[in-house]
Each structure stands twice: as C-alpha cells, then as structure tokens.
Amino acid sequence: MKTEIVAILLIYLFFILLEVFFTSFFRKNNQKFSDGLVEVISAGGLLLVTQPLVLTSAYLISQLYLPSFENSLKGISPLIAFSLFLIFDDLTQYWWHRLSHSVKWLYKLHRPHHNAEYMSIRLVYRNNVFYYFLMPSLWLSGLLIYLGLGWVYAVYIVMKMTIIFGAHSDLPWDKPLYKVKGLSKVMWVIERTISTPATHHAHHGKYKADGITHYKGNFGNMLFIWDVIFGTAKIERRYPADFGVEDLPKTSILEQLIWPIVSNGPLPK
After folding, report:
1. How far is residue 46's CA from residue 38's CA, in Å, rounded to a whole number?
2. Cβ(256)–Cβ(115) under 8 Å?
3. What's the whole-model pTM score?
4. Is the pLDDT of residue 228 over 90?
5. Structural contact between residues 111 and 256, judged by C-beta atoms closer than 8 angstroms
6. What are the angstrom distances between the C-alpha of 168 and each of 19, 125, 136, 206, 265?
C-alpha cells in the first residue's frame, strides 16, 4: 500500500478516535438507520473502487493519447507542481461543488452529503457513487500523475484530506483558537485561506434563516480562498445548531447511493 494512502487512513482513524472518545462517533444527534448504511457504502465505494478506477483510467487514457508526454513534468519545481494540483484539482473541485448546488441533476448526486442532520468525519466520503466518478478534478489529477507529478500528489493529497477531515468533524478545532486574543490576526488569515469547521459547518447548516447557514456558498474543499476570490464566502465564526437539507422531499437509501438508477421523485425545484 502506498505511503500516502497509509498516512491518509491513519489521519482518518485519528479523527474517528477523537469522535469516538469525545462526541459519540457511532450515534450522532438525529441520526437515522439509513445514515450509517449510506456512509459505509459510499465511503467504501469511493476508496476501494471509484478513486482507484478513475485515477488508473485517466493514466491509461493519457498513455494511449499522449504517449510522448509521460513524465514530461517530472523535473519541474515542487512549488509549480503543487500549484498545478491546487488549480486543476482543488479549484476545479470548488467549481464542481458549486455547480452541484445549482444544477439540479448534480445536486441529486451530491445531496447525500448534506442529507445527514449532523456533522462528522463520517460525512467526508458521503456522496452518490456517480458523483466522484464524474468529478473532473479526479480525472485531471490522474493526468498530472501521468505527466510525472505523482511524487507531489502524494504530499498534496495528505494535506488536502487532513484539512477536509478537520472541516467536517464535529470537534471544531478552530473554536478555542478564536477565543485567544493574540491569535486573532492569525485566525483571520487562516479562515480565509483553508476550510475550517466554522465556514464548512455553515455550508452544511439546515436553516438559512438562522443567520449562519450558507449552503449556497463556502464551497472550498482544501482552500477557502476560492470562496473569497469568487464571492461565495461567509465567515461568521459561529456554528449552526441544525444540519441537513431544508424543504426537500424525503429520499431513500438507494436513491442517495445510485440515483438516477433508482429515483423516488422528480428533480428538486
């Protein structure tokens, strides 16, 4: 098993253990029986099937159509290589995420991620199985790996997933730091640079009327600065009391996992 995969799994396990000991990992507030099944199946499908399949397919397609470009970027500066992943993976995923909240059929693929009425590390990989398969950033990452940047991706993906894990956890690491007066300017920079629990929890809030929830913004995955640049940022340093989706019909386990193969109704208005 690759070193970066081991590192990600260990960090993932670390956040799981934190929730086990401090916030009840296995039984969240408002949890339904379907939640656990959706999370286990979607996470397992992504990690064991979808992500390896997409990255491998992107590599093989590149090898077929761009044979002379294999490893052509291997000698470039690490800073430039890292920046390429920020643009072609993280920025691309920002736009994919943003489109998923405005294009009806994409939202059907993404809704499972928001259907849970709680925050947790459990939500990180919770999406329809087709959501990640269609995600452009995964295919572009496969292309960059083919071009010789796999050595950078190994570092990049560990950093990215650590930030994403922290942003979803119901143990908000940023909350005590906001109370330290001497860290005020530092936190001002951090919360505008990377996704934090405060900004990402707001994205998962259920009721727009609470003044905190911002499910039509705060789309950043690793970097929050994309939201700042493109005008979708809302920074409150507060956390919604309720999570989930507002004013949408109920959905089933199968619809969450394999829509449009199984559909319980029309697209949301």
Report:
1. 12
2. yes
3. 0.94
4. yes
5. yes
6. 11, 10, 22, 15, 29
CA atoms of 13 and 25, how far apart (whole Å): 11
Other C-beta atoms closer than 10 Å to the C-beta of 27 total 9
Residue 27 in tokens:
């039984």
Dihedral pair phi/psi, residue 194, rounded to 5°: -120, 165
Are the beta carbons of 147 and 70 closer than 8 angstroms?
yes
268 cis-preceded (ω within 30 degrees of 0): no
Residues sharing a CB contact under 8 Å with residue 111, sequence separation 6 or more, in sequence order: 128, 245, 248, 251, 256
d(CA 226, CA 49): 29
Query: What is the C-alpha to C-alpha distance for residues 43 and 49, in angstroms, rounded to an integer?
Result: 10
Q: Which residues fall within 8 angstroms of residue 187, CB to CB, at 6 or more apart?
A: 174, 177, 178
Write the secondary structure of the chain as one string of H (helix), E (strand) and C (coil).
Answer: CCHHHHHHHHHHHHHHHHHHHHCCCCCCCCCCHHHHHHHHHHHHHHHHHHHHHHHHHHHHHHHHHCHHHCCCCCCCCHHHHHHHHHHHHHHHHHHHHHHHCCCHHHHHHHHHHHHCCCCCHHHCCCCCHHHHHCCHHHHHHHHHHHHHHHHHHHHHHHHHHHHHHHHHCCCCCCHHHHCCHHHHHHHHHHHHHECCHHHHHHHCECCHHHCCCCCCCCCCCCECHHHHHHCCCCCCCCCCCCECCCCCCCCCHHHHHHCCCCCCCCCCC
Q: What is the pLDDT at residue 247?
A: 86
d(CA 214, CA 220): 12
Q: Are 144 and 76 in contact (CB under 8 A)?
A: no
Average pLDDT of the chain to the nearest whole number:
94
